[in-house]
Amino acid sequence: MQQRPTAVTAGLGVLGLRYILDLEASGYLPGITAGTLIAARQLVRVAGAPRFSRQVHIAYAAHPRDLALLDQALAGIRHLTAEHSGKVPGSIAS
Predict the structure, then answer these.
(1) Residue 71 in domain
(2) Is residue 28 situated within a structural domain?
(3) Tens digits of per-residue pLDDT, 25-80?
(4) Which domain holds residue 53?
(5) Residues 89, 52: contact at Cβ < 8 Å?
């Protein structure tokens, strides 16, 4: 049996996910990272664990060269935000 370190922080969801799966550990991952594994029952959401949301910020020129392209990009971001609004990060365990 592998000995687990007392604390590990992984800044990238994929690295954290690999650690959780390899060592049967637990942690907080973005729902979009862990969602398919939760659906496949490889990970479980811990009941009562706190949930976190992450903000998205966009910077663009005050007078963009292609306003239609900017509008298309903003519409895409709004669509993705609405699509994933119920999928906020939560505590999961393998």
Answers:
(1) yes
(2) yes
(3) 888 877 777 788 889 998 888 888 887 777 777 888 889 899 999 999 888 888 87
(4) 13-93
(5) yes
